[in-house]
Amino acid sequence: MKRTGTIYTYSVVHSAAEAFKERTPYVVALVDENGHRVVSLLEGYDPTRQVEIGQEVAYVSDDAAGNRIYKLI
Q1: Mind spelling out the 3-state secondary structure of 22-71?
Q2: How far apart, in whole angstroms, are the C-alpha atoms of residue 38 and residue 58?
Q3: How, if at all, do strands 4-13 and 36-43 pair?
Q4: Domain segments of the chain: what residues?
Q5: 58-63: which pairs have CB atoms within 8 A and are 24 or more residues apart?
Q6: pTM of the model
Q7: Which of 9, 16, 28, 54 could form a disulfide with 20 if both were Cys (CB 3.0 to 4.6 A apart)?
């Protein structure tokens, strides 16, 4: 079963702590998955692609700290 969610809200990060500078810009989103909202990194962000509230995202995996990672569909 494919796990999906929708973007409830998001922020594009352009200035980050040293540990994340190589990833900027990146998107942190509050994703609604079946009524549960989780903060997530959106993998594969491309500044030329529109990110929108309500947009569907697919679950990719959990990171080493147990945080969910999604990608834009």
Answers
A1: HHCCEEEEEEEECCEEEEEEEECCCCCCCCCCCCEEEEEEECCCCCEEEE
A2: 13
A3: unpaired
A4: 4-72
A5: 58/2, 58/3, 58/4, 59/2, 59/3, 59/4, 59/5, 59/33
A6: 0.87
A7: 16
Output phi, psi for 22, to 5 deg: -70, -20
| 15 three-class SS | coil
Cα 59 to Cα 8, 24, 26, 35, distances in angstroms: 15, 21, 17, 15
Cα-to-chain-centroid distance, residue 52: 12
Over residues 13-68, the pLDDT tens digits come to 999 888 888 888 999 999 999 999 999 999 989 889 889 999 999 999 998 989 89
Cα 11 from chain centroid? 9
Take residue 12 and report the two structure tokens written for it: 């594009």
